[in-house]
Amino acid sequence: MRNVLLAAVILGALAAAPGFHAISSAQEQEQEAPAPPAERLDADVMWKIRREASERSQIMRTLHVLTDVYGPRLTGSPNLRQAQDWLVQQATAAGLKNAHLEDWDFGSPGWLNEKTAVHLVSPVKDSLVVEALAWTPGTTGTVTASTVIVTPPERPTQKDADTFFARLRGNLKGRAVMVGQPAVLDVTIDPPAKRRDDNEARALFSPTPSPSPFGAPAPASAPASAAAAASAAPPLTADQFAEQLSVFLVQAGAALRINDAGREHGQIRAFNNRTFDVAKAVPTVVMRNEDYGRIARLMASGHPVQVEATIVNQTYPEGRTQHNVVAEIPGSDKAQEVVMLGGHLDSWHAATGATDNGIGVATMYEAIRILQTIGVKPRRTIRLALWSGEEQGLRGSVAYVAQHFGTFENPKPEYEHFAGYFNIDSGTGRARGMTVFGPPTAADVLRPLLAPFAGNGVMGASATRSRARGGSDHTSFNEIGLPGISVGQDPIEYGTHTWHTNLDTYERVIESDAQMSAMAIASAAYHLAMRDDKLPRFTKDAMPARPGAR
User: Fold this and answer.
1) Which of 132, 80, 88 is nearest to 344 (CA)?
2) How far apart are CA 359 and CA 543, in angstroms?
3) What is the pTM (predicted TM-score) of this model?
4) 3-class DSSP state of 499
5) What's 455's DSSP letter?
6) 504-516 as b/e: b if 16+ CB within 10 A
7) d(Cα 478, Cα 267) in Å, to the nearest integer?
8) For residue 95, which of 289, 330, 300 has the smallest C-alpha distance?
9) Alpha-carbon distance 7 to 1, whole Å?
10) Could you give the CA distance from residue 397 to residue 250 in angstroms, rounded to a whole number?
11) Helix 43-55 and helix 2-12: axis angle, to 10°?
12) Going by DSSP bridges, is the β-strand pair 256-260/306-316 parallel, antiparallel, or unpaired?
């Protein structure tokens, strides 16, 4: 009954949607009118997409397997490889062609946490809530250690760091070292979950989009005087100091490192250890702020604290070679040209990676499954790509782009045959619009392809000139001058609760939102694959410069 009702709602929006054009011989003649011609939209295909998506959706089944069966899918882990193999099997069984894994060099071992338990043993016995930090070692059995808090200097120079380490040397052997004072957090009054209203989404994806709702960059701090800058030693970068601190704790013989999660409501983010080398770290956990603060208060009030920890982590040398999942619907007369859609399959390990990015993978797989199931015959090849290594710096998609397309300056033959890449990676919220790298005319092409889904909340498309790599995998394409298309979504509670946290589970996903996103993406990808022309691109002379390029 639920699916029937959902179908009734979403199918009813089609006929009245702005920009909708069914293909007929009469209309094909009309399309010879002066430019710009209307985008030709296939009413029959869109009807079939909506019906398949609403009545026979596989999204939640796919999400269940990825999250509940395979769990956290950290790059290089056996969990991720099993999920990749399963998706190749599913794609093959669904009739997709050329389903396979494409290798790329990660260069670091895989890592998996098998068990973590930390308890307070004095002055009172109690359980503590923690997550192991990725790419750190486990304990040798169960260790019991007295806690100590160290407070690193802010923006230290190398001299400051050396002074800090010298003061601590000889005092940390066998201790559980808490790094930093506990964060003091304000109580949240605003609701954690949020949808955009239609006016906000419409403004964001209009031909002249309003500033990003994610906020402007923080203003740069006031520069020091030239004389002061010339005389002052440069501060270490955050990564430089973090690496030195990690190695120092190993040399000092610390038994355990404890980091404050620094978030409310028991949220823990346990990521961003960039060494990928367990020999350069001590066993490390990230503790929920509520427990970290409790221990700090006990110590401050004169109560010595002891904790007990058992951590079992494994590394996997075979993880040095990583893989992207690829499958496709072959094209016909323009088969060498390709429309791509995808997202990253890897996740962090504190939870099961449902909103980041299990539901994105399930949505994109659903979009191409729908097209395969309803029997479309696209002119261009439609290719699914599910990346690994996104959480370590978009490394899987960067490797794919380099292998297949080269660079803007030195393109490979496939470069000219590329017709666009759709990416989704912002949680469970429904699609509200799309942003494409290219001139304004690129967004002008996408906008009527999305118009039939205005009743589902899709409010348009906008263009960007940014070639900055970061955020998600579409920017790997943008960086080399190819049209990456980012699907903008309702935020729901992605930034507030689920992104990289221990709360990122199946329960946080909204099924109907994902279904509506899959419909819009499937239709847009299909119609982009059917156009006479590819998406407009920047000409060589008009190509925006890469950030930092001279």
Assistant:
1) 80
2) 33
3) 0.90
4) coil
5) G
6) bbbebbbebbbbb
7) 33
8) 330
9) 10
10) 34
11) 160
12) unpaired
CA angle 49, 50, 54 (to 5 degrees): 120
Euclidean distance between CA atoms 110 and 74, whole angstroms: 8
Q: How far apart are the first and last CA of the chain?
A: 60
The continuous run of DSSP H or E covering 160 comes out as: helix 158-168
Token pair 């010879």 is at which residue? 32
Token pair for residue 494? 């992605």
Could you tell me the CA-to-CA distances from 39 to 208, 252, 451 in Å, in that order? Answer: 21, 67, 11
Q: Measuring CA to CA, how many Å separate 270 from each of 93, 274, 500?
A: 36, 12, 7
Q: Which of 482, 371, 348 is nearest to 79 (CA)?
A: 348
Name the residue among 299, 378, 366 with its Cα closest to residue 337.
Answer: 378
pLDDT at 282 over 60: yes
Contact 118, 128 (CB under 8 A): yes
Q: Report the distance separating Cα 328 and Cα 368, nearest Å.
A: 8
Q: What is the CA 131 to chain-centroid distance, rounded?
A: 20
Largest CA distance in the chain: 86
Q: Give residue-wise pLDDT tens across range 126-185.
A: 999 999 999 999 999 999 999 999 999 999 999 999 999 999 999 999 999 999 999 999
Give me the phi and psi of 187, to 5 degrees please: -75, 130
Domains of the chain: 39-107+320-530 (3.40.630.10), 124-187+234-304 (3.50.30.30)
Q: Where are the alpha helices (DSSP H) in 99-237?
A: 158-168, 198-204, 226-231
Closest CA to 489 of 521, 463, 464: 521
Give residue-wise pLDDT tens across range 226-246: 444 445 789 999 999 999 999
- pLDDT grade for 289, boundaries at 50, 70 and 90: very high
13: region left, alpha or beta (phi > 0 left; psi from -120 to 50 alpha): alpha
Residue 523: phi, psi to the nearest 5?
Answer: -65, -45
Q: Which amino acid is at 445?
A: V
Q: Which residues are within 8 A (CB) of 304 and not within 5 positions of it... i.e. 6 or more apart?
A: 122, 123, 146
